[in-house]
Predict the 3D structure of the following.
Amino acid sequence: MAAWLHSTPSAGSPNRPRQTSAVPYFICPNCQNRSFDEDGREGLSHQARGCHECGFGFVFQLLEDYFPRPGAGFAVCDSEARVIAAGKGLFEVTGRLEQTLIGQDVRTALALTFAEGEDPVGTALEWGVRQLDKHATLHHGAGIDKQLICDLFPAYDDDGGLLVVVTPV
Ligand SMILES: [Zn+2]
């Protein structure tokens, strides 16, 4: 039997161009509630789609469903990596209050250092591709260094931006 019959297809191109997804998955940056826009109607409107669970002002669109790890904290950034919102749980992970983070570059605001000098924040913004399982060190507000896993998701709307998920290891 030909071996190629059993080969698994290669994963999608890592350089997938930025585009509006036809698969409408959403996650709330605040309460992390996941939702699926079944008829696509809400996604077509230009009005911000809020969270049905907690009432947060908008939900973040993902290309694929995503299950945050327990204890994760979310931050939403604009197209220049500046924090525009912090979700529930971010303070527990980072020791920093939302008002001290808003408007600052997420990398400096959280004092993040990525393994091997990587910059997955820049990569996600520049290439529009998600960056998963990136190890980082965070300098905690309480003065200690914490090991984290970061997952980063580019925004697919016209404004661009980034969802940053940090989870203690
Ligand atoms: Zn919510």
In short: Confidence is low (pLDDT under 50) at residues 1-18. The first helix runs from residue 41 to 44. The helical segments are 41-44, 90-94, 98-101, 106-109, 120-127. The radius of gyration is 17 Å.
